[in-house]
């Protein structure tokens, strides 16, 4: 007689997010499901090293009168929820009980459900709403007048302490600078009607979703991507208009804001796909939104599924071209020793180590990969109450970088790279696409 099977023997099955069902926001049902999942996690403890959610949960259990989940006060469940920033690593890399296992665990989306309930009840902090208003901040601050003022203020210790006291933004955390010339202005002259050379799954021409961060804060890697792709005969254009992908609001549980972003972005991107363009973005979280989270929220939307099928991580795209013999390897400069941090939201796309593979094509270059979360998560590391935990999470990553003494280091997530650099206190992180451009000498 066949019994229960060990988990993780098959690829995980991600169920659609039933967020429009009123039962999704039923508090009693939510706490019942959290108790069930927490009890399984307590008995396993395999994810204890991933983030702070699991140590908090296990400490609550171990310090309770029963030393079981039933001894933990329901109000303390929120302490676990607060520590989850939806990196998805537990689901994709650790948990043996994800579907199709009969226990059907999806810890990140359970935490998302809890965050959604809290947001619906009006309990989201004003600070958190402000930190995730990336479109508004970019439009207001990324210009020649405001950017220098804001950047100088963010480097002033006295003002940073005042900001921490007033708004709960850590005085010690790295904060992104704002550019005086956004990426969309830098790349304003790009082709809109051109042919590509297909290779395998790729159509050979790419529309870049600029992303809030690369547009308003760090445009240089966007310029580097255009240089690398065009060196390989891949025309690049920009999506004619865009809003934030929705990931910051997703992490708040503000699913209506995600819906509004989807309604603004998907028609534009779907039209580009119909015109023969593939899609990419330089921030792994944005790619993941279009590949996974939005499709799970809107599984029956044909345009959402069309965009999902056409969206690629930049290095996934380059390596698909390489597989078909369509990537140039005329590198002019070796990079020496490179330490590369694999971002969580890239790892969980299940595409393999494409950035490492691409950098490894460069002569006189060795690549050491770090597959650990940096603990940044866009906003988690800048919140005063979580910054200490973020620094604890990044500590092993910093130790690996320091041990290697590399010529270059960085991450596909530029924010993670900056967080690592801040924790190191020495050297600057470089985006892998910037390293590719240096190696090509273009």
Please outline the helices and strands:
Blueprint: H1 27-44, H2 53-62, H3 77-83, H4 89-94, H5 107-120, H6 126-131, H7 134-141, H8 146-154, H9 157-167, H10 183-186, E1 206-208, H11 212-216, H12 220-231, E2 236-238, H13 247-252, H14 255-274, E3 278-280, H15 284-297, H16 302-310, E4 311-312, H17 314-323, E5 336-341, H18 344-347, H19 354-359, E6 365-370, H20 387-404, E7 408-411, H21 414-424, H22 432-440
Parallel strand pairs: 1-2, 1-3, 3-4, 5-6, 5-7
Helix pairs in contact: 1-5, 2-3, 3-5, 12-22, 14-16, 15-16, 20-21
Explain what this protein looks like in three dimensions:
The structure is a single chain. The protein contains 22 helices and seven strands. Helix 15 (284-297) runs antiparallel to helix 16 (302-310) and helix 20 (387-404) crosses helix 21 (414-424). By secondary structure, it is an alpha/beta fold. The strands form two sheets. A four-stranded parallel sheet has the order 2-1-3-4. A three-stranded parallel sheet has the order 6-5-7. Helices cover 49% and strands 6% of the residues. The protein folds into four domains: 22-120, no CATH class; 126-167, no CATH class; 183-319, no CATH class; 329-440, Rossmann fold. The chain has helices spanning 27-44, 53-62, 77-83, 89-94, 107-120, 126-131, 134-141, 146-154, 157-167, 183-186, 212-216, 220-231, 247-252, 255-274, 284-297, 302-310, 314-323, 344-347, 354-359, 387-404, 414-424, 432-440; strands spanning 206-208, 236-238, 278-280, 311-312, 336-341, 365-370, 408-411.
